[in-house]
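Task 17 of the worksheet. Students: predict the tertiary structure of the chain below and write it out as structure tokens. Keep your answer in the requested format; marks are given for formatting as well as content.
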Amino acid sequence: MENNILLSLFKYKPESKMTSKENFLTEAFAHILKIDTNLACKWLEYCDVLEFEQDSLRISTQVPYSDDGVPIIPDMVIKGGTKSGQSFTIWHEHKWDDYAIKDKLIKYKEYLKKKEPENKLIFIGKHAEQISSAKLHCDKALLWADVYRFLEVNDSAADLYANRMKEQLLDFMKKEQLTLERLSIQKMRAYYSGDSSDETFLDDCRRMVDQLSTCDWSFIPDYFTKNEAPVVKHKVGKHPYRKQNWGRTGIEFVDWVNYPEPGIFMGFLLDHSDHHMDPIDPENIAELPENIAELMFTIDVGEEYKDALIQSDLNVYAEKIRGKLPGTEIFGPLKMEGMSPWRKLVIRETLSNVIQGKEKTAQEQVEVIYHRLKDWCNVVFEDGKVEKIFRDLFENKAT
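Model answer:
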């Protein structure tokens, strides 16, 4: 989009370690809400503020507050009142690449709730890691991709300037990779074509993993999750077959305190070399390079347990699971012995097959991938026998 004032201004950000990216994005977002009251009202509803007087809303940025003499400066503030005459304040803390600061969020939330229990703290970040660290210390934690989707699906007022500015903000966010983009066969082919400059597909995978990390995974047995949120792992280097690092990007449930107890990985396998596994469809890779990328689920153990379970009933259950999940490759510990022996159960399917015909929107793809992984988990854990095998293994080792 030409003549985009936001893209033009962003070229002049300070060239230092402390850039103005977060402040720039905050000002742009606040400006859109200021000039479009209807959109501001929808934003409050999106943030679970359901009762307010539209005419009472006031939006500001970088407003200084004082907590016992200590300055507090939230990125964006929305103040308003309810029909009953009660006032409320919504603080926003925004991050681009920096991590969420736990102590800062705790201080902000304590200050707000002390003033009025109905006050809220909203955190917005670019990466899932930021959301994971922030969500326990604020009322709502969102990705900028969520903000993008909010702006995209909610109509602006009839005002031409407001609509134009929203379009430019959406264009800016897309160019700065603050959006969720759909996976496509075309991008997969470009990624595996040997052009090291085209990492669009990898970036799209990483942002989709960020979205997957926010989904509900409570159906996985507590034994594997320890009631913790998944950890996002982007273990892919600059380009596959050039500078790869574990060749996958996805979410993990691993108890690092008690590791090597079993851990679960779910996500995208982009490079098979480190895993010593051939692609599912090796004969057609040259003609269909998009079939290199796969959706993968694994249950792994630590190095000291790599020789365990090789002749166990887990192989029998792997065969039963294969019969219930057509179109997938399923390896038990016996098949994995000569490849990745610490990987005891592996389910794989070409990613192109998973998203085939599901390329309408990125959010629809998230749902498709999430439900595919959920279906796999439900089959693996449906009767509790797989869980029991791992429980018995580690309980026996402990004694």
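Marker's comment: The radius of gyration is 24 Å. Residues 132 and 229 are 7 Å apart (CA to CA).
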